[in-house]
Design goal:
heterodimer, A: 79 residues, alpha+beta, 3-stranded antiparallel sheet, B: alpha/beta, Rossmann fold, 9-stranded mixed sheet, two-stranded antiparallel ribbon, 5 helices, globular
C-alpha cells in the first residue's frame, strides 16, 4: 500500500516555473494550452492494507512538513 | 555577550558569521551544531546561510525540525535576538517564527551579485543604528529568495512597521529592476511582531570589512551588539 501525495503551488503564488514551461510548450507548437503549474509528487510505502489507519497521520505529515501551507496545497490517496 | 552561530549540514557563511562576531566586533561566540538542544549561556543567535539538507523538499523545510530549533523557538519567545541570513531566513519562515515564505526567484536564475537596500524602519535591534537614509550595499547569493506572503500578511507587516529592508536602487527608490528575485513589495528582510527575530536574504557577514568591498553589513551586527548590551545591562 502506498500514500500518493501531490503538492501544488497555491493559485495566488507566483509560479515562474509553470509559466516558463507553458511558454516552452507554446513555442513547441502546443497552441491553446492554459496555465501550467509545476508541483511535486511523493510516494510513501505503508505496511498493511487498511488505508484508514494511516489517513490522519499522512494528512498531518503533509500539513507539517511535506507541504508548506503558506504557498502550497496538497491532496493524497492511499491505495 | 555570547553569540551562537548555528550549523546545519550544508550551512555556509557560518565561518564568516562567527568571524565577524569574534574578529570584527571582538565579541565572544561559538558554533552550535543543529543536533544540540540547548542554547544555555547564549545571548544572540545567528542562523547562517547555505543549503541545509540540500534544500530537499523546500528550502529550510527539514532544518526547521532539527533539535536545536526547539531551543531557538524558546529563546525567541523569551525575547532573545535571532538573526536569520539567507537560508537562515528561509528556515525561520518554515519554522513559523517569521511569516511568509521564500520561493523560487521569479527569473528562475540563481542570483549572485551586490544589491542596494533601503532600511525601512530603525525600530528594531538590527536597524536602530543604521543612519537614516543610508542605502546599504550587500551581496546576495540565492535561487529561492522571492519573498511571498498573502495580502493580509503583507498589509499587517506594513502596518506594524515590520519590513526592515527593501530592495532599492542606489537612490533608495523601489524599482522592479532593483528587485533581484521578484519579492513582493521588494521585501528583503522582515522581523516578527516582538521585533527580536529578523531574517534577510542578503549577506551582511560578507560585507563587514573593507577588504570585502563593503562594510555596510557591519552596521547590522553592531546594532544588534549595542541593543544586546542594553538588554543584558537591564537584566543584570
Amino acid at each position: 500500500m502506498k500514500a500518493k501525495i501531490i503538492v501544488t503551488p497555491k493559485k495566488a503564488v507566483l509560479d515562474p516555473q509553470g509559466k516558463t514551461v507553458q511558454n516552452a510548450l507554446e513555442q513547441m507548437g502546443y497552441k491553446g494550452i492554459g496555465a501550467v503549474h509545476v508541483g511535486k509528487y511523493l510516494e510513501i510505502d505503508l505496511p498493511g492494507a487498511d488505508a484508514e489507519v494511516w489517513r490522519s497521520q499522512i494528512d498531518g505529515a503533509c500539513h507539517k512538513i511535506l507541504s508548506n501551507p503558506v504557498i502550497e496545497d496538497y491532496r493524497f490517496v492511499i491505495e | 555577550m555570547n553569540f551562537a552561530v548555528l550549523q546545519f549540514p550544508a550551512s555556509n557563511c557560518d565561518q564568516d558569521a562567527l568571524h565577524v562576531v569574534q574578529n570584527v566586533l571582538g565579541l565572544s561566540g561559538r558554533f552550535v551544531w543543529h543536533k544540540e538542544n540547548s542554547l544555555a549561556g547564549i545571548d544572540a543567535v545567528i542562523i547562517p546561510g547555505g543549503f541545509s539538507y540540500g534544500d530537499y523538499l523546500r528550502t529550510g523545510a527539514i532544518a526547521r525540525f532539527s533539535p536545536i530549533m526547539q531551543a531557538v523557538r524558546e529563546f525567541a519567545v523569551k525575547g532573545g535576538p535571532v538573526l536569520g541570513i539567507c537560508n537562515g531566513f528561509q528556515i525561520l519562515c518554515e519554522a513559523g517564527l517569521l511569516p511568509g515564505a521564500l520561493i523560487r526567484n521569479r527569473s528562475l536564475q540563481f542570483r549572485c551579485e551586490h544589491v542596494f537596500l533601503k532600511t525601512v524602519t530603525r525600530q528594531s535591534p538590527f536597524t536602530h543604528t543604521i543612519p537614516a537614509g543610508k542605502i546599504l550595499r550587500l551581496p546576495i547569493a540565492h535561487g529561492e529568495g522571492c519573498y511571498f506572503a498573502d495580502d493580509p500578511t503583507l498589509e499587517q507587516l506594513e502596518k506594524d512597521d515590520r519590513i526592515l529592508w527593501q530592495y532599492a536602487d542606489d537612490n533608495g527608490k523601489l524599482t522592479e529592476a532593483a528587485n533581484p528575485n521578484g519579492s513582493l513589495r521588494n521585501i528583503a528582510g522582515i522581523c516578527n511582531e516582538a521585533r527580536n527575530v529578523a531574517g534577510l536574504m542578503p549577506h551582511p557577514e560578507r560585507a563587514s570589512e573593507l577588504i570585502l568591498g563593503s562594510t555596510d553589513g557591519r552596521l547590522i551586527f553592531e546594532g544588534l551588539a549595542g541593543w544586546l548590551e542594553g538588554r543584558l545591562a537591564k537584566a543584570a
